[in-house]
Amino acid sequence: MIQAHDNSFVSRRLQNPPHQGLITILQRPQRHLKFSNGSTAQKLSVRSVNILAATLSISSSHSKPTRAKKLPGQTFCGTLEHGFIIEPKDDELTILQGDLWRKIDAFYRFSRPHTVIGTIIGITSVSLLPVTSLGDLSPAFFVGYLKALIPSIFMNIYVVGLNQLFDVEIDKVNKPNLPLASGEYSMGLGKAIVSAFGLMSFAMGVMFQSPPVFFALLICFLFGSAYSVELPLLRWKRNAFLAAISILMVRAITVNLAFFYHIQKYVLGRPMVFPRSLCFATVCISMFTTVIALFKDIPDVDGDRDFGIQSFSVSLGQKRVFWLCIAILLIAYASALVIGASSSFLFSKLITVIGHCTLASFLWHRANSVNLEDNASVTSFYMSIWKLFYAEYLLIPFVR
Questions:
Q1: Which candidate, 74, 79, 246, 341, has a CA 20 to 30 Å from the CA of 173?
Q2: 84 forms bridges with which residues in the sheet?
Q3: Where is the signal peptide, in residue numbers (predicted)?
Q4: Residue 238, CB-side half-sphere exposure with 13 Å CA sphere
C-alpha cells in the first residue's frame, strides 16, 4: 500500500488487466513518497516533472478491494483495485488563509458594520445635496468628498470600539459574538485599535484643513466618549434621554449640517444656504436616529437590567417602546409624503411619494411579523430599521 506524503501528487486511473492494477503518480520536483513499510523513495531533484510508474500486484478480483488510507491534508477517492485519486490540499496555505479570514471577520464585527454603512450612505447623500448640475461632480468634488468620508469612518470605528471596551461584561450577555466579549480580542488590542483610529481620524481632520470636517469629528468624539466612558457625569448610555440626545446630535445634526457646509463652502466655493432638502434631511433623520436610539435597547433588556442601564425598554417595557418606534417612523414617512407631493418637480414628486409609500408598507408588514419574545426576531427587525435608514438617505437627494 502506498501512502502519499506530498500535496502535489496527482494519480491517474489506468486500464487494469485482470487480477492486476496499475497506479501512475505524477510527481513534481523535491517531493518523495513514503511506503507503508517505512522505506522512503529517493527524492527527485530535477526541475522538470518526472513520472514515477509503480505497478503493484493486487489480489484476485474475487477479493475485497483495499481502500487507500487517508492522510492529513489529503483526500483519496477510489480503491487500489481500480486506482485512486489524490486531491491536493496545501495545509500551510489553508491555515494561513483561515487565520487571515478569522482576523478580518473579527475586525468586521468589532467595527459594527451597520453603523459604518450608515456613515458612508449618510455622508454621501448629504454631499450630493449642494450639487446643482453634473458639472459640480468634478474630481475636486470627489476629493473633497473623500476628505469628509475617510476620517469619519475612522471616527465611527473609534466610537463603536470605545463602547465595546466599556461594555465587555454587558456584551457577554447581550452580544457575545463581539470580539472583546468572546475573547478573540484582548483588552490591550481593543485599546490599541480604538486609539489608533481616533488619532488617525483627528490627524486627517487637521491635515485636510476643513473646519466643518474637523468640527464634525470633534463633536462625534465628544458625544461618543460621553456616551460610553465610565467617569463622573459621563456614561450617558445609563440615561435613556442623554443616550438618545448623543446619537441624535451626531447622526442627525452634525453629519447633515457639517458635511453639507464642507461641500458647499470648501469644495464648491459657494455661500452657505439652507435648501429645502437639507431641512427635510435634518428633521427626518432626527426622527430616524431617535428610533434607532430607542430600539437598539429592546433586545438588550436582560443585560441592561443586570448592569443598571435604565433604558426606555427597561423602564417602559419592550412592547411599548417597540410600537412607539413604529409610530415615530410612520409619522416621518407621512411628513415625507406631504413634502414630496408638494414638490414642483414631477420627477422628484414621483420618486419621493412612491419611495416613501413603499418603505412605509415594508415597515408595517415587518412590524406585524416580529415576535417580541424572541430576541433573534427583534434583532432582525432592528437591522431592518437600519436598512430603512439607509433607504431614507438615498431618497433625500431627490427632495427638491
A1: 246
A2: 78
A3: none
A4: 12
Q: How far apart (Å, rounded) are the C-alpha atoms in residues 390 and 117?
A: 8
What band does 15 get if pLDDT is binned at 50, 70 and 90?
Answer: very low
- Asked whether the beta carbons of 23 and 83 are under 8 A apart, the reply is yes
330, 321 in Cβ contact below 8 A?
no
pLDDT digits (tens, 9 = 90+) for 300-340: 777 777 777 777 787 778 889 999 999 999 999 999 999 98
Whole-angstrom distance, CA of residue 128 vs CA of residue 137: 9
- Helix, coil or strand: residue 291: helix
How many residues are present in the chain? 400
Taking alpha carbons only, the member of 396, 388, 387 closest to residue 113 is 387
Strand, helix or coil for residue 242:
helix
What does the DSSP assignment read for 61-116?
Answer: TTSPPPBPPP-TT-EEEEBSSS-EEEE---HHHHHHHHHHHHHHHHHHHHT-HHHH
**Has residue 67 got a pLDDT over 70?**
no
This prediction's pTM: 0.72
pLDDT band at residue 88, thresholds of 50, 70 and 90?
Answer: low
Q: How far is CA 161 from CA 114, 225, 293, in A?
A: 14, 10, 17
Element (H, E) at 198: helix 187-207
* Distance (Å, whole) CA 128 – CA 122: 10
Higher per-residue pLDDT: 379 or 155: 155
Per-residue pLDDT at 168:
93
Helix (H, G, I), strand (E, B) or coil at 144: helix
Q: How much is the CA Rg of the chain, to the nearest whole Å?
A: 31
Cell of 83: 486506482
The number of CA neighbours under 13 Å toward the Cβ of 91 is: 8
**Is 378 within 8 Å of 390 (Cβ atoms)?**
no
